Fold:
Amino acid sequence: MSTILKRNSLMVACVISLVSSTTAQYEFADGKLWATAQERARVEYRANNTTFDSAIADDEDVFLLNRVRIGLGAKPCDWFKVYGELQDAREINSQRVPPNTNLEEGLLDWRQGWVELANVGEFPLGLKVGRQELSYGEERLIGSFDWNNVGRVFDAVKLHWQSGNCWLDMFGASVVNNTVATGRANSFDDKTYWGDDFYGIYGHTDALPKHKWDLYALLRDKSDGAAAGPARQIYTVGTRFATTEKMAPWDYWLEIAGQFGHIQGSGEKLFGETTDAWN
Structure:
């Protein structure tokens, strides 16, 4: 168990968090079955939480964020794995003003449920299908958003190729939306909006001395504006360059990404923004 005290101040906003987290994995039947569990509690104090305006006296809150995850996996042979995970995430005693439309809460729901066909030691290609995490690099563009109480997962199909110290992922995905709004969440109500699709090619190599190098190309294709903003096609190309453990005690990384595309109703094409991805 670890306890971390973290403080972050921005302008007149203030967030103070106290975190306690326990994670465990247990294996059975010579590793052919495994169970996972996590319990995390975080107390947050927030001042000027929604408006950044210190003139609003009641714009502050103290509340508890609690998250429980329980999973079960099976690996009956070297090339086949299946895994399912439940999550219950709650925001307790919050009184945020005005009423929050993005509570960090998702009552009992399927977080992950996937099947994987892969044995890279025998064959370089693998396939993973189902609700799963996508996490690359520093998670600045694609990540599971684990600090958030609910986190992020995708309904996705991912093809993985690996040879030596190089690998390449190709995926098609849609983010799973937490449906909580101004009220409290319901159980098993998180769902994917299939009109908002996400495609990517992400490559990685450790072949460089003491360094690792990533190259990627991404597309967010939102076909209509019926929900969550206007239709859009946003392309992202980028690269990431970072040290490995062999460079210790020195450590650094560099990531450069550019975006171009079109948002319906904007009247013009976009170039140069790097914020419209699933980080």
User: Anything to note?
Assistant: Confidence is low (pLDDT under 50) at residues 1-13, 271-275. The longest strand covers residues 60-77. DSSP finds no helices and 15 strands in the chain.
